[in-house]
Design a protein that fits this description.
This is PRC-barrel domain-containing protein. This protein is of the alpha+beta class.
Length: about 120
């Protein structure tokens, strides 16, 4: 998805599945803790329904709607974490698995921390 879009501009937009069927309306947008890039959207799936989390990558903003490249049934079966709270790393992991998305690369480990210059690695 375009990263130059103001996440607040997504709120209130209609969301559609891969076949163009309406899923619901974007209720909230969740940013990546490390980068601040919009990562997930909570989509209200009906008047008395719950919010379903959808990945913003590889979703596309086209016209006045958010187009999510997954079937509506899969989206509606996404884990329910409620809205208005921070997503934990465990919850994000569940969402990545649900959508069969490759996990983002882990931060590079600093293996030489505390090692004196000139020492050989063991």
């Amino acid at each position: 998805m375009q990263t130059d879009i103001d996440p607040r501009s997504l709120i209130g937009r209609k969301a559609y599945d891969r076949n163009g069927h309406k899923i619901g309306t974007v209720d909230e947008v969740y940013l990546d803790d490390a980068t601040g890039v919009p990562e997930w959207a909570a989509v209200r799936t009906g008047l008395f329904s719950r919010d379903a989390f959808v990945p913003l990558e590889p979703s596309e903003l086209a016209g006045d709607g958010l187009h999510v490249p997954y079937e509506r049934a899969l989206i509606k079966e996404a884990p329910d974490f409620g809205v208005g709270r921070h997503l934990s790393p465990e919850q994000e992991l569940q969402l990545y698995r649900h959508y069969s998305i490759s996990l983002p690369p882990a931060p590079h480990e600093v293996r030489d921390f505390g090692r004196l210059a000139g020492q050989d690695e063991a």
